[in-house]
Amino acid sequence: MTSTETSIETTTKSSIKTLCPYCGVGCGLEVLGETGDALPANSSNWKVRGDRTHPSNVGMVCVKGATIAESLDKNRLLYPMFRESLDQPFQRVSWEEALEKICDRIRLVQQEQGVDSICMYGSGQLQTEDYYVAQKLLKGCLGTNNFDSNSRLCMSSAVSGYLRSLGSDGPPCCYEDLDLTDCAFLIGTNTADCHPIVFNRLRKHHKQDAQMKLIVVDPRRTATAEVADLHLPINPGTDIDLLNGIAYLLWQGGKIDQEFIASHTNNSSAFIELLQHYPPEKVAQICGIPQADLELAAQYWGESARVLSLWSMGVNQSSEGTAKVNSIINLHLLTGTIGKPGCGPFSLTGQPNAMGGRESGGLSKLLPGYRLVSDPQHRQEVEEFWGVPAGRISAQPGRTAWEIIMGLETDEVGLLWIVATNPAVSMPDLARTKKALERSPFTIYQDAYHPTETTQYAHLLLPAAQWGEKTGTMTNSERYVTLCAAFQQPPGEARADWEIFADVGRRLGFTELLPFQNAEAIHTEYVQSTKDRVCDQTGISYEKLKISPRQWPLSASSSLRYPLGKDSQARLYTDWKFPTPNGRANFIPHHSRGLAEPIDGDYPFILTVGRLYGHWHTQTRTGRIEKIRKMHPEPFLEIHPRDAEKLGIVQGELVEVYSRRGRAQFPVLVTRAIAPGTVFAPLHWGSLWADNAEANALTHAISCPDSLQPELKACAVQIKKVDFERVL
Ligand code: SF4
After folding, report:
1. Please, what is the end-to-end C-alpha distance for the chain in angstroms?
2. Residue 37 above 90 pLDDT?
3. Ligand 1 site-directed mutation target among 18, 19, 22, most atoms within 8 Å of CB
């Protein structure tokens, strides 16, 4: 094993500035010892607070960020461990043995099944340097595009939507727009619980400016909807109807920006033609809302010079996720509300570095610098940049997350390498997912924690360093890149993820392509791959990031002009020139296809799933934090009183929920916060944390045809009483 930078010294500083490793808001954190002396070795003695100098959160922090230190030393995977088959116990092995086993297996699979039988499934928890080395190993060294990440389940519809409408990925807005907008239109996002610091900032502006309007579109009356000026609890799956209905009213009322449309867009007449099908009486009826509320939403849009749309998984996790994103952007193109302060279509990313993954080629259709594997020029540019032979990068997009599962089912996947994610809880259709994982001939599971629900499906466990134990960068939703420096020794033999990928690559003979001895060397190479792209980061360096986070685009030439100050561009497309062939943004008209799995007599309820304020994903970290466990002690199913009465169930009673794929049990929470006919369950409880309470046992994998993101947000279910009662 080559020793690189994982062998850091414990810091002698009394405080460290870094980034919260949970959500895509990307709050700066400050880690301090109790006494002001050097940080103690034991993380349970650290205090964590918001970094007042970080531009994204200016000192604010939610419960997850504030308690991060409490999760670091619990249930850590300390050594590589191996077993020949899933029915055997794990035995400790050396790194040398572990890495040789991986290399032997890669060679074997390459020889017997071909390189496209090798798959890696990564995570938005990875730092950009990890992402860059992993996808370079797969795409540039081995020659397969089978590197996907759990961001596929989170925001790939936002990527596809931006690409199709604007010509490139990349949220065009920034958090300052939260302070400046006249009207915030939140659709498919429970921002108060899932992106709390973004919401705090928006709410502060909302309270201070009596004229500002807050519209929330959500079938649930969430904490976000609770404070809205207008809550539209639309029927699940009717988002596109609503968006087209608002566009119809704006167009009919003359509240559109003719000059912007004429000078800066394509395809407006096709969109206007589509709108003829969306008169308000029809839309209100489809969406299940009063017509007056629909008209009020259009009125708020039309009266506001600066409209900011925010969305997250409620839009993206859909079999028509890309079409929903296009329909949101259509509204901004219709009203010219893009590329200006307080305006624009702003997707909120779920994970801390989903953005960095997008920038560095972290999905199976992407290459670094917002390039596509399907574009011959992009492949050529990256091949030349890496110095690999022409044709090394495959023209075929690799397997997506769900296609990896299908490949296991058909024995087309011979090696699966899972990194920093927990698919045995987070994938849709869990019974099918688990069965496929059981078939895997060789699964490597690289993570900081053990056990997780996925370790039982692994042959080889690799201990990974995590937050505070490795150096790297992350990009948040507003394009700020923050340096997360290592300040703590990893436990046991844990190593940085990128080190493991690079070590395997070098053992396979790719020494020249993966020469990296530290994270900074990777970053230096990576930023050059973004040169002259929308996400240009050539002006960002570790040297600068040590002083403050930097927002892209930031080219080397702009940083020469402004060496250390505010030298980047807060908003994209301020000149209304878009990275499309003719420089204009595209109207993309869509009719809705509705839900992939509508209700019927056998399955008469729509289940929607989501996150809670305190927990993070599958509880790998937050499940071990006392304060958060008390906040959210157990799973539940929200149901409207009318439906509860019909089924004869009462508050706290345990019910069984069935879908066509599986079943789960939850105590019910009878509440008017959920619309009749819809039920809600949180997604955080896997088999380690509760019996039969996995929301994804019920969900399906039918995906958006453009983004290939599964429709995790809605499936048809049946609910039945079970024969004993519990109290919540
Ligand atoms: Fe961390 Fe997100 Fe909370 Fe900020 S809002 S502290 S990034 S979990």
Report:
1. 51
2. no
3. 22
Residue ID of nearest Cα to ligand 1 atom 2: 23
DSSP 674: B
Specify the ligand 1 atom closest to the Cα of 352. Answer: 7
557 vs 572: CA distance, rounded Å: 17
Mean pLDDT to the nearest integer, 343-358: 95
- Residue 456 alpha carbon to ligand 1 centre in Å: 30
pLDDT tens profile 566-575: 556 799 999 9
Tokens of 187: 């659709």
Between the CA of 16 and the centroid of ligand 1 the distance, in Å, is 17
Distance 358 CA to ligand 1 centre (A): 20
pLDDT, residue 563, reads: 43
Task: Kindly give the number of the ligand 1 atom that is closest to the alpha carbon of 197.
Answer: 5
Please name the helix (run of DSSP H) or strand (run of DSSP E) that holds residue 483, with its range, or none: strand 480-484
Question: Cα–Cα–Cα angle for 14, 494, 454, nearest 5°?
Answer: 120
Give the number of C-alpha atoms closer than 13 A to the C-alpha of residue 455, restricted to the C-beta side. 20
pLDDT score of 10 more than 60: no
Q: Which residues line ligand 1 (CB under 6 A)?
A: 20, 22-23, 25-27, 57, 61-62, 64-65, 196-197
Could you tell me the pLDDT band of residue 46, with boundaries at 50, 70 and 90? confident
State phi, psi for 116 to the nearest 5 degrees.
-75, 5
User: Which numbered atom of ligand 1 lies nearest the CA of 25?
Assistant: 7
175 CA distance to ligand 1 centroid (A)?
14
Residues 6+ apart with CB under 8 A from 496: 4, 5, 6, 130, 464, 465, 469, 470, 471, 472, 490, 519
CA of 189 to the centre of ligand 1 (A): 15
Predicted TM-score (pTM) of this structure? 0.95
pLDDT at 565 over 70: no
Q: How far apart are CA 225 and CA 214, in angstroms?
A: 9
Q: What is the mean pLDDT of the chain?
A: 94
For residue 19, the CA-to-ligand 1 centroid distance in Å is 9
Between the CA of residue 491 and those of 42, 79, 350, 496, 497, what are the distances in Å?
A: 11, 9, 27, 11, 14
Task: Give the pairing of strands 460-463 and 81-82.
Answer: antiparallel
Q: Ligand 1, closest atom to CA 26?
A: 7
Q: How far is the CA of 591 from the centre of ligand 1 (A)?
A: 36
Report the range of poorest mean pLDDT among 43-47, 450-454, 487-491.
43-47
Measured by CA distance, the residue closest to atom 4 of ligand 1 is 27
Residue written as tokens 């900032």? Answer: 201
pLDDT of residue 507: 98
Q: How far apart are CA 189 and CA 310, in angstroms?
A: 7
Element (H, E) at 322: helix 321-335
Cis before 553? omega within 30: yes
Q: What is the pLDDT of residues 157-184, one digit of tens each?
A: 999 999 999 999 999 999 999 999 999 9
Return the ∠ at Cα 533 (arms to 532 and 536), rounded to 5°.
Answer: 80
Amino acid 727 reads V
